[in-house]
Design a protein that fits this description.
It is a single chain. By secondary structure, this protein is mostly helical. The protein contains 51 helices and 13 strands. It has 7 domains: 137 residues, 3-Layer(aba) Sandwich (Rossmann fold), CATH 3.40.50.300; 36 residues, no CATH class; 108 residues, no CATH class; 113 residues, no CATH class; 87 residues; 97 residues, Winged helix-like DNA-binding domain superfamily/Winged helix DNA-binding domain (Arc Repressor Mutant, subunit A); 127 residues, Tetratricopeptide repeat domain (Serine Threonine Protein Phosphatase 5, Tetratricopeptide repeat, Alpha Horseshoe), CATH 1.25.40.10. The protein has a 4-stranded parallel beta sheet, sandwiched between helices. A 4-stranded mixed beta sheet has the order 9-8-7-13. The protein has a 3-stranded antiparallel beta sheet with strand order 10-12-11.
Length: 964
């Protein structure tokens, strides 16, 4: 079902699809352009039966279904274009509904319409038998619009206001933009009628709506006409008009009517919680008496609106509104989000003003935000100052105040590091007392406490439960805490790709504290795994907001700087950074808790802090991390073995989650030196190149031994061409035995030393053959891994005492594998009925076939079967590509491929068929007959009958030659 408004190319799309099927038929297409007269089911069925070559059948749905059935096993698709001409409830519509139920298995239905017809197809959808293409998919995207402009030789900007509407783009390109208004009026607006034009005008002015909102705005029941193009509709029935409709003069509303429409619509949006949309509507007509109170709603306890939202609201408001309690509240909340040191004064003003007005809810909002700032700044004095008033409001029966009182106690326990007290405070909150946003805060605090107590799974569950309850800004806080926790528990590979999205979400809130925390955490995570360029870019973004954050966030930034310095092998600079920060923000200060998110760097590089770290109350995970850090520190002093002897089994991902890669490499070497070889090799393998780089810097015998035991993938994939002359990264392999060894390994990735020596050196004794194999392997490894450090393990050819294994993965790009992949993709495209896509893959496979497999090893019998397989598959691919090219009127390329196929298999009858088809496509029937005659001679020589395809070509060629 293809559904879109006028001018979106539905008919063009159908024409292309039908043409594609004719190129390589999978079945028969029966196309009927529906007209208004087809509302008569008898006429409609008659037209379908004529198209199905059953004109004498009784015109019913059953007869149409039978006519389709008679084509079996051929698949038949009934293509019905312009179905919008059939009115709802008409017999013609009923006929389509009946066909949906009665068509046989070889029958298919394709409907194109300006609106989705009211048909019952849920059963088919449940079976996966419904494909829907809508207006959005038919519009030009940015790249397509640019290509269209280039094809019409006009600047792309001229088409931007067409909204990707194909018909509109064509109109602007060929007739000029001045006719756009006429087109919209003639094609869309005039047919709507005055009632629906008024509804469209209101929808355009509001910027979106549903039937309920439109009815409220117009103060009468309305239902929007969904046939209007460039109106998107979501699953909830919300209509979103494209910006193009704002430019249509015929949709302007009278000013007085516009004000009342917006007033009524805004009130509905407020009840739905769509405050920004409501404020925009009210501000657009300067209804400040209703717009300013939205500040208090947006800043309700538990909410933290985006800074960009508040900034835009405050910028548009008159000064007199900003001096009122709601304006002061919003000003203070914006400062709390972006510059906390400036937030106290306006929030205190708001508290006083709301209290004077007797507005307890407003006062509580301001108190909660000031308390939040105090908590971020670890200012117990302000929290203590606010506590009595919260308790007073709670005693007066304000349920929100009671819940906030418990949250306040929990925050104090959080500052004090008392996780048990925090949980006890949260447990006093009655269910349902707090709104969802404050419940999210409670869930987040509970997760922090559970982490501190070592209940990892409980903490993660608490964070997960808090996310859907949080507002947009606080969701970043919860996500960031959960993210850093998962990273610390070893989910490094899954976590780092999320870093950019998490920071984008933080920056979207505009909250400096959030941005600093997330950007610094991103930087530290990337630095820990050796992605230093990304780490530096994240650090810059954290430093941009450093002037507006609390000390705890500054500690996170310093930790990120130190992690980068460690990654750069500059431990001295990292230690200096940490010492300077510890002097200003000691472990026992209000910002001290931030240090305990990553104590390993401090433990190793700042020895004087170790006693304090060892006696501090930290979660079990951090205690384990400090244990690893202690081993790294002891390893630098040559005394790590005793500590390792009592260490529990090591999980490499968790090590990566708590130690920077250089420290983790030192730890791996210490493990190996202590005899825990399997754990050491697994850890170094998990660290990748960043760990190997640091292990090489150590230059100790233990480090060299570990590097020799763990292979590393090359940074750049190696390309091997096996079709034709064997080449590695474009260069021929000079040594014959190296060519033979590589060729054999390509065809037998897992083999034995004995098998290789028997094939390559059959006349030598075992010792001499083994020596020759070692020499050949040495040359091969230098060829495949020229940058491998001497003495380190090879990656591509892994060896044991008896076995050789060629590692074939993404690091090894072999043309034979790409050839097979292209042919698999072509077969899939053929199965899906997309011959043009299949053609691309056949051509790719043909290009990859550069000649006989391992052509410079002519006398090796072990390659014969694979050579024959390659020849056969190439010939089939080249012939099929030639057939498709000939059918699409490209005889030159078709002939080239057919000649290549004949060069490989001179007995290929299908290749002759392509040559004949190419000649016929040029109109050269005589040449086609000569080719067919040569084909007959070849087949006679083989004693093989002519195929039906060649016979049909001969008939086509002869029928086209005039008599005499």
């Amino acid at each position: 079902m293809i559904t879109a408004g006028a001018g979106h190319g539905k008919t063009t799309l159908l024409a292309q699809a039908v043409a594609e099927n004719r190129l390589a038929p999978r079945g028969d297409d029966v196309w009927l352009a529906v007209e208004a007269g087809d509302a008569d089911a008898t006429r409609f069925a008659t037209d379908l039966l004529v198209a199905l070559e059953a004109p004498n059948a009784v015109p019913t749905a059953a007869a149409v279904a039978d006519a389709v059935w008679r084509h079996a096993p051929t698949e038949v698709c009934l293509v019905l274009d312009d179905v919008q001409h059939l009115p709802a409830g008409s017999p013609g519509r009923d006929l389509i509904a009946a066909l949906l139920e009665q068509l046989p298995a070889n029958g298919h239905l394709l409907i194109a319409s300006r609106i989705a017809p009211p048909l019952s197809y849920a059963r088919l959808a449940g079976q996966g038998a419904v494909l829907r293409i809508d207006e959005l998919e038919l519009r030009f995207d940015d790249d397509e619009l640019a290509a269209f402009a280039a094809a019409r030789d006009i600047p792309t900007p001229q088409l931007l206001r067409t909204a990707g509407w194909p018909a509109m783009a064509e109109l602007v390109a060929t007739a000029g933009a001045d006719l756009v208004g006429d087109f919209l009026w003639e094609e869309v607006l005039e047919p709507l009628g005055p009632e629906q034009r008024n509804v469209l005008a209101v929808l355009s002015d509001l910027g979106g709506g549903d039937d309920e909102l439109l009815s409220a705005a117009l103060d009468r029941p309305v239902q929007f006409d969904t046939t209007v193009p460039l109106i998107s509709v979501d699953a909830d029935g919300w209509y979103e008009p494209h910006a193009l409709w704002h430019t249509v003069a015929g949709l302007d509303l009278p000013e007085g009517e516009r004000v009342e429409i917006r007033r009524r619509a805004a009130r509905v949006l407020v009840t739905r919680g769509r405050l920004d949309a409501a404020f925009t509507l009210l501000a657009g007509v300067e209804l400040w008496s209703e717009a300013a109170p939205l500040f208090k709603i947006a800043c309700h306890p538990g909410r933290r609106p985006a800074a960009s939202l508040l900034r835009s609201w405050l910028a548009s408001c008159p000064d007199v509104e900003l001096l009122g309690p709601s304006g002061q509240l919003a000003t203070g909340v914006l400062s709390a989000l972006t510059a906390p040191e400036l937030a106290a004064a306006p929030l205190r003003n708001a508290i006083a003003a709301f209290r004077e007005d007797g507005d307890a809810d407003g006062e509580l909002s301001a108190i909660s935000h000031l308390g939040n700032v105090a908590w971020w700044q670890r200012d117990l004095g302000v929290l203590a100052e606010l506590s009595p008033r919260i308790s007073e409001l709670a005693a007066a029966g304000n349920p929100t105040a009671g819940g906030l009182e418990a949250i306040g106690r929990a925050l104090v326990f959080n500052i004090m590091g008392d996780n048990a007290g925090l949980l006890a405070a949260l447990d006093t909150i009655e269910p349902g007392v707090l709104d969802p946003r404050w419940e999210a805060v409670g869930g987040w605090l509970r997760g922090l406490a559970l982490l501190g107590l070592g209940d990892e799974q409980g903490a993660f569950a608490s964070f997960e439960a808090a996310l859907p309850l949080a507002d947009e800004a606080f969701r970043v806080t919860v996500s960031g805490t959960w993210w850093t926790s998962r990273w610390g528990f070893g989910n490094v590979e899954a976590i780092v790709p999320e870093a950019a999205a998490l920071l984008a979400a933080a920056e979207a809130t505009g909250i400096a504290q959030e941005i600093a925390f997330v950007a610094a955490s991103d930087a530290r995570a990337c630095a820990h795994i050796g992605e230093l360029n990304r780490a530096r870019s994240y650090l810059v973004r954290a430093q941009k907001v450093a002037a507006h954050v609390a000390p705890a966030a500054l500690v996170h930034i310093v930790l990120a700087e130190a992690a980068i310095a460690i990654g750069e092998a500059d431990d001295e600079h990292a230690a200096a950074l940490l010492r300077a920060a510890l002097a200003e923000y000691p472990l026992v200060s209000a910002a001290g808790s931030a240090w305990f998110t990553d104590t390993c760097m401090t433990y190793v590089l700042v020895p004087e802090e170790r006693p304090a770290l060892e006696v501090a109350t930290v979660p079990p995970r951090m205690r384990w991390a400090q244990e690893l850090a202690a081993i790294v520190a002891a390893g630098r002093e040559g005394s790590a073995r005793d500590r390792i002897a009592t260490l529990s089994p090591v999980d490499p991902p968790r090590v990566r989650g708590v130690l920077p890669a250089p420290f983790a490499a030192e730890f791996a070497v210490a493990l190996d030196d202590a005899g825990r070889v399997a754990e050491a090799t697994a850890l170094l393998a998990a660290l990748g190149e960043s760990g190997r780089v640091h292990a090489r810097r150590l230059s100790t015998p233990a480090a060299k031994a570990l590097l020799a035991a763990v292979p590393a993938a090359p940074a750049v994939a190696v390309r091997i061409q096996a079709f034709g002359v064997l080449r590695v990264d474009g260069l021929a392999v000079d040594r014959v035995r190296v060519r033979e060894l590589l060729g054999y390994l390509l065809l037998h990735p897992v083999t034995t030393r004995a098998a290789v020596t028997a094939l390559l050196w059959p006349d030598l004794d075992d010792r001499a053959a083994a020596n020759n194999l070692r020499v050949a392997l040495s040359h091969l490894l230098r060829l495949l891994e020229p940058e491998r450090t001497e003495g380190e393990a090879a990656y591509f050819v892994q060896q044991s005492a008896s076995e050789l294994r060629l590692v074939v993965d993404d690091a090894l790009d072999v043309d034979v594998d790409a050839f097979d992949a292209a042919l698999r993709a072509a077969a899939t495209a053929e199965d899906h009925g997309s011959p043009s896509v299949a053609l691309e893959h056949y051509l790719a496979a043909s290009e990859l076939y550069g000649g006989e497999l391992l052509a410079d090893l002519p006398d090796v019998a072990w390659a014969d079967l694979e050579r024959e397989r390659g020849r056969t598959r190439f010939v089939a691919a080249a012939v099929r590509a030639g057939e498709l090219l000939a059918a699409s009127n490209d005889p030159d390329r078709a002939e080239q491929l057919a000649q290549r196929a004949r060069a490989v298999d001179e007995w290929s009858e299908p290749a002759y068929g392509v040559l004949a088809s190419a000649a016929l496509a040029r109109g050269d029937r005589a040449a086609a007959l000569r080719i067919i005659e040569r084909c007959h001679e070849m087949l006679d020589e083989l004693g093989v009958e002519v195929s039906d395809g060649t016979a049909r070509l001969a008939r086509r060629a002869r029928a086209a030659i005039p008599a005499g």
